[in-house]
Amino acid sequence: MRSPFTIYKEKTKLGLCWYARFFWDEGLGRYLETRSTGILVEGKRERRREAEDKARKILAELKSPTLPESTLKKVSPKKQSRQPSKVADISFIQYLRDFWTPESEYAKYKRDVKKKPLSAYYIQMNHADIERHIAPYPGFQKISLGDVSKKLIRQWLIWMGTRKTLFRKKDGTLIERGTISGRRTNAILQGMRVAVRWAVDNEDLPVDPFKRAGEAAEQVIEKGILIPEEVVKLISSPIKDHYSRLAVLLGVLCGMRRGEVRGLQWGDINDGLISLRHNYQDTDGLKGPKYESLRTIPVPASVQSLVNTIKAILGNPAPDSFVFATFNDETS
Predict the structure, then answer these.
(1) Are residues 148 and 196 in contact, defined by beta-carbon separation less than 8 angstroms?
(2) At what angle do helices 182-201 and 150-160 cross, to 10 degrees?
(3) Up-side HSE of residue 17: CA atoms within 13 Å toward CB?
(4) How far is CA 175 from CA 111, 133, 166, 167, 171, in A?
(5) Which of 19-23, 28-32, 76-80, 95-99 has the highest mean pLDDT?
(6) Rg for the chain (alpha carbons), in Å?
(7) How many angstroms separate the Cα of 255 from the Cα of each of 43, 225, 269, 305?
(8) Residue 115, φ and ψ in degrees, nearest 5
(9) What are phi and psi of 174, to 5 degrees?
(10) Are the C-beta atoms of 157 and 214 separated by less than 8 Å?
(11) Which one of 59, 204, 299, 326 counts the least CB within 10 Å of its CB?
(12) Count of other CB atoms within 10 angstroms of residue 208
């Protein structure tokens, strides 16, 4: 005996959606009624159970003798789909501004639940990108979060392809220096994608308009390294200031990054070794480096000699004091 209904997937403008067929007719060899459940195919289990529950409700309505004839018509998935929450009615630009803040729900979730806090620099850059490259786009102005579409995103990508980078000269004037790179465009796009994906995951939006919306082509340029001749030339440069010279040598001979140099403390240098355990950024202050960056670095003789010279000048610096104190001075 045939089941009173069967469900299947059908592609719609909103994405893949669950549909249901009802009332099998043996003579015709097919089901007589087809209806949308309004349930989109999402997640690991594709929301199949929800679709089956909705199909049962539709079946009960179809069997009802008081059911108006008009309701037997095929209903579009757009009308059947779950209504968006009030979050979807918020201005898109305002939603992004509220999302990329240190105290947003997303930032708290990453910090307090996942134990992977977002860096202050990452939040700051995404927030700045809203004002520079998202809010100025006419298509994003005066629309709500729920109005963002795949077509609109692609139009923004086209608009970004014509945007010029600005360079500030020493006299303070700004000049244009070519178009924004695909890599930079995709970084800004990712900031929007993360924010909207959060709304989708929280069921404040029924679908993700950024899914398969595409992105800008990137020109991959490998980071180069100094050749031996360049290293020799850099080391032999006439840098008289001890601190400046030490900073150069730590980068060239010890492979330390800028934040690691700035975060270096006197207690990190012992017995001809540097224990890399600090990093200093303007936005985050002093923090530990990423786990994979924790390491011990042998100190070359030229670097150790310069370290000894600076320590002799200072006397006996405290272990928790910065080697490059002026780099991290708020008044500098």
Answers:
(1) yes
(2) 160
(3) 24
(4) 39, 17, 6, 5, 11
(5) 95-99
(6) 30
(7) 44, 11, 15, 18
(8) 60, 30
(9) -105, 135
(10) yes
(11) 326
(12) 18
Q: What is the pLDDT of residues 186-195, one digit of tens each?
A: 999 999 999 9
**pLDDT tens digits, one per residue of 102-122:** 999 999 999 999 998 998 889
One-letter amino acid for residue 12 of the chain: T
**Burial bucket for residue 43 (CB in 10 Å: 0-12, 13-18, 19+):** exposed
Q: Are 231 and 252 in contact (CB under 8 A)?
A: yes
- Specify whether the CB–CB gap between 261 and 307 falls below 8 A: no
CB count in 10 Å sphere of residue 95 = 24
Q: Which two tokens stand for residue 300?
A: 């070359």
Sheet with 273-276: list strands edge to edge: 269-270, 273-276, 295-298
Q: What is the pTM of this model?
A: 0.54
Number of Cβ within a 10 Å radius of residue 316:
8
Q: Which two tokens stand for residue 246?
A: 């030490």
**The two three-digit tokens of residue 25, written as one number:** 């007719």
Using CA atoms, how far apart are residues 255 and 78, in angstroms rounded to an integer? 57
Q: Which residue has the tokens 């997303």?
A: 106
3-state SS, the chain, equals CCCCEEEEEEEECCEEEEEEEEEEECCCCEEEEEEEEEEECCCCCCCHHHHHHHHHHHHHHHHCCCCCHHHHCCCCHHHHCCCCCHHHHCEHHHHHHHHCCCCCHHHHHHHHHCCCCCCHHHHHHHHHHHHHHHCCCHHHCCCEHHHCCHHHHHHHHHHHCCCEEEEECCCCCEEEEEECCHHHHHHHHHHHHHHHHHHHHCCCCCCCCCCCCCCCCCCCCCCCCCCHHHHHHHHCCCCCCHHHHHHHHHHHHHCCCHHHHHHCEHHHEECCEEEECCEEECCCEEECCCHHHCEEEECCHHHHHHHHHHHHHHCCCCCCCECCHHHHCCCC
* Block residue for tokens 């620099």: 121
